Amino acid sequence: MTGEVSPVSGAREPITQGELRASHMDRDRVVEVLRVAAGDGRLTPEELDERLEAALTARTYSELAVLTTDLPAAGGHSAGVAAPEAKQLVRIDCGAGTAVRDGQWVVPQRLEVRVSSGSVKLDLTKAVITSPVLALDAEVHAGSLLLVTRPGIEVDTDDVAVRGGAVRVRPHRGATVPIILRVQVSGNVTGGALKARPPRRNLWQRLLRRPVSYQ
After folding, report:
1. Where are the alpha helices (H) located in 40-105, listed in sequence order?
2. Is residue 81 part of a domain?
3. Kindly report the CA angle at 194 between 76 and 112, in degrees rounded to 5?
4. Rounded to a whole number, what is the largest CA-CA distance in the chain?
5. Domains in the chain, number
6. Of the four, 25, 58, 102, 138, which is 20 to 30 A from 204 by CA?
7. What are the backbone dihedrals phi and psi of residue 51, each rounded to the nearest 5 degrees, phi first?
8. Nearest-CA neighbor of 100 among 57, 147, 169?
């Protein structure tokens, strides 16, 4: 009869978690895991390109999950779990003491560092990176600011004015990996030092000629 709707012939089978449709945010989280893994040397450039293409075209959770099953989670977080939210601005004011950020600390979008007669160390080797760019405003007077980097982290100091101090950036050696973080440094160095370098190997790693581990 016109206007009538035919009843459903049978109930649909329940959908499993893996068959649920993935969102843009789900794809972006997996892409970030893949980029970090490539930066750590776990994926070759060819493998990264192949998996990125699969991640960007994936339709379901199961299609995304298979791309990271052989990889550790980025920054200790699962690819299906939202990464911790980064602060927009963090300020570090160090006088005659020492300030250190290391381990799995969350890198903010912008960082203001003031150092006078003290030292600040920013260890990025295991940091949780949630944004591709870190704006670092540095004022170093008779002190030191050290950035410890890992493959895939690029430090740009072109906008730093040096007056009686030193600025030095030591890049990583070896194969080129995709950039996962650009640190854009600006500010002034007066009678102090601003340095960026890879982590140093410990005695055991030097004796066995083993590279630094970023796990």
Report:
1. 45-57, 61-65
2. no
3. 65
4. 91
5. 2
6. 102
7. -75, -35
8. 147
Q: Do 135 and 169 sit in the same domain of this protein?
A: yes
Tokens of 98: 């020492």
- Residue-wise pLDDT for 95-146, tens only, equals 989 999 998 899 999 999 999 999 999 999 988 888 889 999 999 998 999 9
**Structural domain includes residue 2:** no
CA pair distance 178, 35, nearest whole angstrom: 7
Both 39 and 70 in a single domain?
yes
Q: Which residues pair with 158 in a beta bridge?
A: none
Phi, psi of 199 (to 5 degrees): -70, 150
Residue 11 lies in a domain: no
Q: Tell me the C-alpha to C-alpha distance, in Å, between residue 100 and each of 47, 103, 142, 146.
A: 35, 10, 18, 10
Torsion angle of the four alpha carbons 56, 61, 62, 65, in this order, in degrees rounded to the nearest 10: 70
Residues 6 or more apart in contact with residue 177 via CB below 8 angstroms: 38, 39, 41, 45, 151, 152
What backbone phi and psi angles, to 5 degrees, belong to 136? -115, 115
Judgement on whether residues 97 and 197 belong to the same structural domain of the protein: yes
**Does 82 reside within a domain?**
no
Write the pLDDT tens digit of every residue in 5-51.
Answer: 444 444 455 555 557 788 888 788 888 888 888 888 888 888 898 99
Please tell me whether residues 41 and 132 are part of one structural domain.
no
What is the C-alpha end-to-end distance of the chain, expressed in Å? 67
3-state DSSP assignment of residue 157: strand
Instruction: Note down the domain range covering 62.
Output: 17-76
Q: Would the pTM count as exceeding 0.70?
A: no
